[in-house]
């Protein structure tokens, strides 16, 4: 990675991880300037203490964890931004639509489900974000959130089941998806 | 792929990394795996459909950096890296006896005591010089505001800048901390919107000019002034400068430099079809946000939607074209986004509905 320790290696690392770090930071703080500064400081710190990254098993998780720590520290100080409520962080995209939306009614249902996700506890939303949106493994998500793997699994599982309890994922989902799968199946096998 | 025989609910399936990967990035091989898994039990097709719907719900609000931003950040990091040396581990021998276990010459105690005093003095100096600027977490030359927030900044030359919401102002490096601020050129960089009240700064008679220039860099333009008040608004590829008092020179326009007089408004669009628009306006209307107001003058709902986005980060969706062309004049308080939306609803007789934390739908 950059055990060799030259600046170019660190900059390559920066180029590769900047977009994901920026997105994650934005969801943690909702303050672009603050996130930019925190990322720059993080890499400057790595530049000065380079032996530490070399020991990190998973660089992506390590970088996200470090950024998270920095941002939470800055936010706790509270002197850079207005205090943000947790309710404004890690929000699902309620304007977009998942692939299974076919009708106006589906669109309304997906909006409602996504709004339900937005009302889950923040830690659960963060775990969903890391697992599904950033596509981290449970172990990586655990590193980032500084909890054990079991806790991440619990966050995710609780979030998923509470969606069912409140929405009781009804059969409406089956119709469009069922049709889609059926069509796919025919295309593949009935030729 | 493991057999996943114990899975009984869509939630268990939706939490499986192998399943998530298949839904998000299917390949012919994983398609086959999961088709086979479904074929083994009649109930599994239903499980898969429900779990797939759950996985596909998990899209989060997100932002991305423009290539220009990425380049800017990388260049900035390169520069900072060049300015700081890595702390080489060779400088710290691995086995050092702790200080208290070693015998040290007596003079070291005096040096140590003197250092403590020096550090304390430096701390006091730093504290005094950083007090009152608000925000010790950012360096004193970098100021930002979030949505719905405005902020007043006194520059080292005693000029006053009022920063509007969602904006950023950076000073020339070293200006804020310089011992003699006058030796540093008066230069700032703006993203977003700010109102400037610039003091004249006398220069030494030998330079030939009576006042040192002050430069605002904003997107593609530079505004150079001696001492005046004016508003700069630079968002989504459009830079607008409105002059209240004094005279300013605008540089960076494709049509060449331009000198503005009070009441002049210049709008430069440099994204897509380039254009420069010059009009005469009442400049007070463009500075009204400082008093918590917008002054609308035949302003379209489309423009108001953009303003709501700039000021509060709200995404406003208009249900049809006729609505986008509805126009409004008058003063409107911008105390809170809800007040604006309520006023819009009553004045225009339209339905305004929150569809999400940051999204609004306006319908006839």
Approximate shape of chain B: extended
Structural class of chain A: mainly alpha
Bin the strand percentage of chain A. Answer: under 5%
Share of helix of chain A, binned: over 70%
Task: Break the fold down into its secondary structure elements and pairings.
The complex is a heterodimer of chains A (191) and B (364).
Chain A (H helix, E strand, L loop, with lengths): L6 H23 L2 H17 L1 H6 L3 H19 L26 H15 L3 H12 L4 H8 L3 H19 L6 H16 L2
Helix pairs in contact in A: 1-2, 1-4, 2-4, 4-7, 6-8, 7-8
Chain B lengths: L9 H5 L2 H8 L3 H12 L4 H14 L9 H17 L23 H24 L11 E3 L6 E4 L5 E4 L4 E4 L14 E12 L16 E5 L2 E5 L3 E7 L2 E8 L2 E4 L6 E3 L3 E6 L5 E6 L2 H4 L6 E8 H12 L2 E4 L2 H4 L2 E7 L3 H12 L2 E4 L4 E5 L1
Parallel strand pairs in B: 5-6, 15-18
Antiparallel strand pairs in B: 1-4, 2-3, 3-5, 4-5, 5-8, 6-7, 7-10, 8-9, 9-12, 10-11, 12-13, 14-16, 17-18
How is this structure best described in words?
The complex is a heterodimer of chains A (191) and B (364). Chain A is mainly alpha-helical. Chain A is 71% helix and 0% strand. Chain A has helices at 7-29, 32-48, 50-55, 59-77, 104-118, 122-133, 138-145, 149-167, 174-189. In chain B, the strands form three sheets. In chain B, strands 1, 2, 3, 4, 5, 6, 7, 8, 9, 10, 11, 12 and 13 form a 13-stranded mixed β-sheet that branches. In chain B, strands 15-18-17 form a three-stranded mixed β-sheet.
């Amino acid at each position: 990675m950059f055990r060799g320790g030259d600046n170019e290696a660190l900059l390559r690392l920066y180029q590769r991880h900047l977009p994901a770090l920026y997105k994650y930071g934005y969801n943690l703080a909702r303050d672009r300037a603050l996130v930019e500064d925190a990322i720059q400081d993080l890499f400057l710190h790595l530049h000065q203490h380079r032996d530490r990254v070399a020991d990190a098993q998973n660089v992506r998780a390590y970088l996200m964890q470090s950024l998270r720590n920095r941002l939470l520290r800055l936010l706790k100080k509270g002197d850079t931004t207005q205090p943000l409520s947790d309710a404004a962080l890690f929000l699902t995209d309620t304007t977009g639509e998942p692939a299974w939306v076919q009708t106006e009614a589906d669109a309304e249902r997906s909006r409602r489900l996504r709004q339900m996700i937005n009302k889950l506890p923040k830690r659960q939303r963060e775990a969903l974000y890391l697992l599904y949106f950033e596509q981290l493994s449970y172990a990586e998500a655990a590193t980032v959130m500084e909890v054990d793997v079991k806790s991440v699994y619990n966050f995710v599982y609780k979030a998923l089941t509470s969606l069912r309890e409140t929405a009781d994922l009804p059969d409406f989902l089956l119709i469009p998806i069922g049709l889609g799968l059926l069509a796919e199946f025919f295309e593949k096998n009935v030729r | 792929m493991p057999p996943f025989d114990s899975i009984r609910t869509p939630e268990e399936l939706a939490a499986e990394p192998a399943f998530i990967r298949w839904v998000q990035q299917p390949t012919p091989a994983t398609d086959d795996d999961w088709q086979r898994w479904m074929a083994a039990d009649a109930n599994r097709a239903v499980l898969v459909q429900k779990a797939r719907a759950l996985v596909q719900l998990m899209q989060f609000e997100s932002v991305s950096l423009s290539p220009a931003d990425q380049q800017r950040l990388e260049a900035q990091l390169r520069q900072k890296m060049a300015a700081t040396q890595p702390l080489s581990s060779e400088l710290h021998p691995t086995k050092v006896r702790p200080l208290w276990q070693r015998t040290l010459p007596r003079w070291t105690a005096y040096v140590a005591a003197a250092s403590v005093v020096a550090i304390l003095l430096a701390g006091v100096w730093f504290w005094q010089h950083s007090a009152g600027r608000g925000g010790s977490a950012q360096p004193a030359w970098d100021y930002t505001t979030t949505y719905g927030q405005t902020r007043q900044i006194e520059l080292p030359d005693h000029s006053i800048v009022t920063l509007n919401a969602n904006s950023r102002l950076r000073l020339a490096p070293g200006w804020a901390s310089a011992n003699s601020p006058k030796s540093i050129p008066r230069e700032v960089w703006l993203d977003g919107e700010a109102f400037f009240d610039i003091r004249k700064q006398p220069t030494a008679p030998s330079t030939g000019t009576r006042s040192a220039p002050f430069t605002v860099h904003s997107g593609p333009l530079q505004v150079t002034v001696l001492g005046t008040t004016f508003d700069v608004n630079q968002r989504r590829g459009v830079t607008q400068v409105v002059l209240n008092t004094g005279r300013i020179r605008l540089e960076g326009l494709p049509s060449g430099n331009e000198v503005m007089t009070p009441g002049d408004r210049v709008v430069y669009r440099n994204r897509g079809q380039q254009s420069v628009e010059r009009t005469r306006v009442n400049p007070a209307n463009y500075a009204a946000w400082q008093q918590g107001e917008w002054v609308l003058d035949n302003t379209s709902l489309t423009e108001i939607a953009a303003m709501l986005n700039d000021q509060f980060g709200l995404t406003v969706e208009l249900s049809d074209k006729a609505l986008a062309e509805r126009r409004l004049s008058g003063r409107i308080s911008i105390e809170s986004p809800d007040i604006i939306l309520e006023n819009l609803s009553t004045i225009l007789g339209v339905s305004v509905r929150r569809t999400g934390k940051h999204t609004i739908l306006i319908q006839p």
